[in-house]
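Q: What residues go here?
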């Protein structure tokens, strides 16, 4: 099979790492929700997550200022809210009200959890040295919550230009390790 050239500005569509998440922040006055898909696990213990938050997003300044957020993991049933939050600025919109999402007090940070999400991970920024140059933050998960009713959640994975892939089928491979 012959390979076809692929445009470099589209490479991100091939490498989207994990589920689309909704990051919540609180800047001292209001809470905001940001749709985000550029994140990666960096360490198991303590759990560290690297994420990109554009300096053009309302959430960027809140994250730099407060050094805390919540990573909320939505399921496919929230696709319209996920896209809506991603296409709306928090500068002049209460996204909780506009997209009918419920803020819930977190246990260790001031940013709220989103009740409708499958999972919520409370985080603190542990390294922001690359935030000014690359918009890259390293977060440490300090508390995590899941909805036990959702056994095999179907998560969204961004493919660019308004397209999402839905994941949710689990397979178990036999391990040869003894």
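A:
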């Amino acid at each position: 099979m012959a390979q076809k050239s692929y445009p470099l500005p589209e490479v991100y569509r091939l490498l989207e790492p994990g589920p689309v998440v909704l990051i919540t922040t609180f800047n001292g006055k209001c809470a905001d929700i940001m749709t985000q898909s550029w994140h990666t696990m960096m360490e198991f213990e303590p759990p560290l997550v690297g994420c990109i938050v554009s300096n053009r997003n309302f959430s960027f300044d809140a994250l730099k200022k407060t050094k805390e957020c919540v990573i909320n993991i939505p399921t496919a049933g929230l696709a319209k809210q996920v896209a809506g939050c991603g296409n709306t600025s928090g500068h002049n919109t209460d996204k909780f009200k506009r997209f009918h999402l419920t803020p819930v007090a977190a246990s260790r940070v001031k940013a709220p959890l989103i009740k409708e999400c499958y999972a919520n991970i409370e985080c603190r920024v542990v390294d922001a040295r690359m935030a000014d140059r690359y918009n890259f933050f390293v977060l440490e998960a300090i508390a995590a919550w899941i909805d036990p009713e959702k056994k095999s959640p179907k998560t969204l994975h961004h493919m660019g230009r308004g397209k999402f892939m839905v994941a949710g089928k689990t397979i178990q491979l036999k391990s040869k390790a003894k």
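A: Context that may help when evaluating the design: The chain has a mean pLDDT of 91. The first strand starts at residue 21 and ends at 26.
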